[in-house]
Amino acid sequence: MFNKKMIALAAALVVSQVALADDKLIDSVSVDYGTAAKVRMERFSVAKDWDVQWFQSNGTHLSGYWEASVGLWQQKQYKNISGNDKNLWDIGFTPVFRFQNDNKKGLYYEGGIGVHRLSDLYNNDTYRLSTLFQFGDHIGVGYVFDNKWEVAAKVQHFSNGGYKKPNTGINYLEVKAAYHF
Questions:
Q1: pLDDT at residue number 10
Q2: What is the CATH architecture of 4-180?
Q3: Phi, psi of 19 (to 5 degrees)
Q4: Dihedral of the CA atoms 74, 76, 79, 83 (nearest 10)?
Q5: Which helix (H) or strand (E) holds 110?
Q6: Site: Critical for activity. Where (predicted)?
Q7: Tens digit of pLDDT for each residue in 60-72?
Q8: Least C-beta-crowded within 10 Å: which of 67, 144, 152, 177?
Q9: Could you tell me the pTM of the whole model?
């Protein structure tokens, strides 16, 4: 556990150095924590703002960002056997639309649909995903503070879109903390 935390800290430091360079490759970093039926997920993400303002009106607009993520899913009932633990990794890329204030602070609403690649097939509790490739869509609400920190709540759904059975899907309730550079 200590080694994982040290690797995560080192990765965060490298990402922050890249983000603080003059030609920023990323605009924010975030950590998500989510739970679903007998599974939990921790995810680290980096994001790049689109820097556009569509439908600007009354101090608000529609914009968005690109998000790249790496997540760990900790299954607690693998193959529907109580106490049978198994972890898998998730790598994802998601375009996210965000309705926000023009100054990018305060309350916002967002939604996105992206692609994810799992390291192994998900088979936990009574939920199964028959493919490694998954779509991940989410909706969320959050708040960006004046000090560049952000908190959010999201609902995220993973599914292969029904192109291979079984495909029960999985729904996570998530909290997010982010820092904007």
A1: 57
A2: Beta Barrel (2.40)
A3: -65, -30
A4: 140
A5: strand 106-118
A6: 160
A7: 999 999 999 999 9
A8: 177
A9: 0.84
